[in-house]
Every structure is written in C-alpha cells, then in structure tokens.
Amino acid sequence: MKRGRIEAFSDGVLAIVITIMVLEMKVPHGDDWGAIAPLWPRALGYLLSFVYIGIYWNNHHHLLHGVERVTGGILWANLHLLFWLSLVPFATAWMGESHFAAEPTSLYGAVLLMAAIAFTILQKAIVGAHGRDAVVARAIGRDLKGKASIACYLAAIPLAFAAAWIAGALFVAVALLWLVPDRRIEKALGG
C-alpha cells in the first residue's frame, strides 16, 4: 500500500469526526443573543476538540511524510489512533452537555490519553518498519512533548473529580504545547 492511501483514509475519518462534532452544536431555541448563552460549555468543548483534531491531523500529516512503505503494523496502529479520535465527538458532547462535570471531563481526558498513546504506538510502528536510522526515528528523538502530554492527561483524569477546571486547564495547556505544528519530521526531511 502506498502512503497516499493511508493519508486519504485518515483525512476522511478526521473530517467526519469534525463534522460529527459540529452537528452536536444544537441550534438554540430563541431569536436573541441570550438564547446562545447556555451553549457556551458546548461551544468551548467544540473549540478545544476542534483544535485537538487539527493538531492530530497536522502532526499525522508530518509523521506520514517520513513513511516510505506501509506495513500491516502501521495500518493497525493508524486504525488504533483513528478509533480513539473517533470517540472525541462523544466525549466532547457529554462534557459540554454536563457543563464540565467530573465524570464526563475525566472521560474526555481518558480519550485524549488513549489517542496520545495510540499516536506513540503509531510512531513506534513506523520506526519499527523503517529502522532506528530512518528519518522518522531521528526526528522523533526522545519525544519529550509526547511524554509530557501523556503525563498531563494522567494527572487530569483524577483531577477532574477534585476540580474539573484544573483538568480543563491541563487539556488547554497540552493543546497550547502542540498548537505550533511539530516540525521535527519536516526538518529531518529537509523541507
């Protein structure tokens, strides 16, 4: 299989994920600005999740540019990542609908944690297929941002039960950490 096919499939899944999230934004019952005010938790959750999906889409794009051949392991690791990302709309909707209650916020963190772990597994599958001297392996290096992200999610999940706003702040912090696209692979490829 060529790299373009896995990219196209992944792009399609992520586009559907974003579409599902926006469809969860229900039209308010009313015809003035006051009717929109109760929607702020959903809108805030949508914004954060949209940024996360955008971050994954961007970094996935860069990661796959270092792939020369797609193996079965890479395919399954990619599907694993897409599985967790496909749960983002559900977790986002529940968190927004509940106004960031503890259980939905912790579930949101668990979905983000599993997506981060799945992305790490995809990176390892690509390195395993291409070798430790491959561009992807050199570009990823020790992946301190990835490890810091996982640590933040691990902290946010139980913190959601103490103060959901702290968990939310950790989610925002991780998004800000990754907001500037990860250009390690681009640099390693010389582009």
How would you describe this structure to a colleague?
With 191 residues, the protein is mainly α. The protein has one domain (3-189). It contains 9 helices and no strands. The protein has helices at residues 3-23, 40-64, 72-86, 88-97, 102-130, 135-140, 144-162, 164-179, 184-189. Helix 2 runs parallel beside helix 8 and helix 7 packs antiparallel against helix 8 (164-179). The longest helix is centred in the middle third of the chain and has 29 residues, at 102-130. The chain is globular and about 55 Å long.
Helix-strand pattern? HHHHHHHHH
| Contiguous uncertain segments of 5+ residues | none
* Number of helices in the DSSP assignment: 9
Number of strands: 0
What structural class do you assign from the helix and strand content? Answer: mainly alpha
Q: Taking Cα atoms only, what radius of gyration do you get, to the nearest Å?
A: 18 Å
Provide the number of structural domains: 1
Helix content: over 70%
Mean pLDDT: 92
Bin the strand percentage.
Answer: under 5%
Tell me, briefly, the overall form. Answer: globular
- Largest sheet, described in full? none
Distance between the termini: 24 Å
